[in-house]
Amino acid sequence: MQCSCSPAVPHLSSPYWTRTVLFPDWAYKPAWSPGSRQVQLWHFLLELLGRGEGGAISWGGEWGEFVIRDPERLARLWGERKGKPHMNYDKLSRALRYYYNKRILHKTKGKRFTYRFNFSKLILVNCPRVPPPPSHQLVQSRPPSVLLAAAAAALPVCGGAAPQPAPRPFLLPCCLPKPVPSPRALHGPGPRGPSGPPPPLALALHVRANGRSPLDSAAGWDANRVGGSLFGGAKQTGIQVESRRAGSDVQMGGRV
DNA sequence: TACGGAATCG
DNA sequence: CGATTCCGTA
């Protein structure tokens, strides 16, 4: 059953995936918070992409693919966010390259400034509320609402009725890249048009940094067979993803 | 343009 | 730990 959030996904096949992305507190950790954690590069990228900021970066044709249209500008924005005035694309791209091993990103070879998020296997979940409060030892820190996604302004999470939502585990980037129905049935770079209704999608993902860095496998990110992982192989790369049983989990990625 | 090692930082 | 900085190589 679906949540009241919304009937279902209207058109998952729309080329316009994102509208806005909200990130959990563990992702952001404002500077004033103890043990604060700064925003990470991929958060930032999703944020810009979600806002349809367009100028510096925008989604590409493939699922999760994005194109940096103005590298130096993007670098400038990134530098501003991080307080690194001397940031440039050379440095930023180095950070992106580190994501290769972590399986967060991949380079689309041949296409300039084109990378791709490894959204291969996302767990789809409905928004309203996540039933089981995580009473695990994970995420013991449950500082109040932080959800300060910079993009928050643009989108009512889901139904927008969540004044002081229950302790949701974390997460939810709303609306992310669409799943790929078939291996290569994608293309059709959307002609720009950030004016689509925000899909009532929410991804429940728990990405937890941990300390591992085997980076042993470089077998070209076999996105498959990673049951429940967001960024394939996350378990080993330092990123873990957990899905809460919301009664209507849906796996994206088609087949496994 | 893109890659990745190495040193360093917060 | 996740970058940032710098740089040699392709």
Automatic annotation (TrEMBL):
Bilayer-spanning residue ranges: none
One GO process term, biological-process aspect: cell differentiation
One GO cellular component, as annotated: nucleus
Chief localisation class: nucleus
Record keywords, A-Z: DNA-binding, Nucleus, Transcription, Transcription regulation
Gene3D superfamilies attached to this UniProt entry: Winged helix-like DNA-binding domain superfamily/Winged helix DNA-binding domain
One Pfam family matching this protein: Ets
GO function terms (MF aspect): DNA-binding transcription factor activity, RNA polymerase II-specific; sequence-specific DNA binding
Domain ETS residue range list: 39-118
Cell compartments where the protein resides: Nucleus
Cited PANTHER family: ETS (PTHR11849), ETS TRANSLOCATION VARIANT 3-LIKE PROTEIN (PTHR11849:SF306)
Family assignment from sequence similarity: Belongs to the ETS family.
Protein's name in the database: ETS domain-containing transcription factor ERF-like isoform X2
Phylogenetic lineage: Eukaryota, Metazoa, Chordata, Craniata, Vertebrata
